[in-house]
Amino acid sequence: MDPEVAFASASKTERAVLQPCDSGQYTSSGECCAECPPGEGVVKKCGATQTVCAQCLDSETFSENYSHAEQCKPCTQCTGLMRLQTPCTDSNDAICACNYNYFFNGISGRCEPCTVCPTGEGVYTHCDHDHDTVCEECVDDTFSDRESSLEPCLPCTICDEETEVQLGVCAPTYDSVCHNPNLPTDITPTSDVPASPPSFTNYFPPDGSESPLPGAETTTSSAVSPRFLGHGFNENLIPIYCSILAAVVVGLVAYIVFKRWNSCKQNKQAANNRAATNNQMVTPEGEKLHSDSGISVDKQRDISVDRDQKQ
Fold it and tell me: Which residue ranges does the record annotate as region Disordered (predicted)?
């Protein structure tokens, strides 16, 4: 080998070793292979020539890392029970999450419905895309009278010792039942939920139903019917709207009649003006013709008399 060629080759190798190279790869000429930044992918790998990069397509392909070998990858598509949580960009893949009221089960690898806490238990931790609902038993004067995946245990109602009588004790599945004996019988107790099975009269659940509690004696009582102010207000507005509409229609009709009457009046006045103008123009001419015809008749009469006398 030519000594000069060998020396040049050795010099290039030395420079390549001394030069820091993040990719750890070199071209045939000894240059450090360039890395494509996030958002760009490799179109042509480093080898005989330097690395060639190209921009990834936003919302279609992405590249998250520096690399001298990775191409742009296709974006993840959220399908089925998955919803799009974070859109795909040229440097970050899309992030999918389970639909609302579903969570991702790592064991089964799919979205499953969130657990609904039964009565007597409240929600301790709400269901999210990466974990299920966590329920807890209602204790320490708390209750939950319905199945729910959102509501926690609620504090029990405390009856007013001075004005109310406690008819039902709070339990994990129902609230306390308080009753004010000074109120009319058609007013429901202060509790918002039906009580447990104590025995008493003239009590109906707050939901307005007429079914007494188990063990209670049935007596006639009318529940307070709800009143909707908005419904009556809308009914009061209907006659107002009708009156306004009728006034608008009457106004339009009166305007049209007035315009027609005014137009006829103007037309009639214009016709009278034309007739008066014509009379003024015809009268002098008529008098002139009449006078001319009278002169002609007199002349003819005189000529006839002179002719008879000569004969």
Answer: 188-221, 271-311
Could you tell me if 113 and 87 lie in one domain? no
The boundaries of the domain holding residue 163 are 106-179
Tell me: do 95 and 118 sit in the same domain.
no
pLDDT in tens, 144-170: 999 999 999 999 999 998 899 999 999
Counting the structural domains of the chain, the total is 2
Answer yes or no: pTM beyond 0.70: no
Q: How far apart are CA 43 and CA 156, in angstroms?
A: 68
Contacts of 93 (CB under 8 A, 6+ apart): 62, 64, 73, 75, 76
Classified as helix, coil or strand, 222 is: coil
Asked if 158 and 143 count as a contact pair (C-beta separation under 8 A), the reply is no
- In this structure, are 42 and 94 located in the same domain? yes
Give the Cβ contact number of residue 88 at 10 Å: 23
Q: Are 113 and 105 in contact (CB under 8 A)?
A: no
Q: What is the CATH number of the domain that holds 122?
A: 2.10.50.10
CA-to-CA separations, 66 to 32, 35, 116, 157, in angstroms, rounded: 14, 6, 45, 62
| 247 located within any domain | no
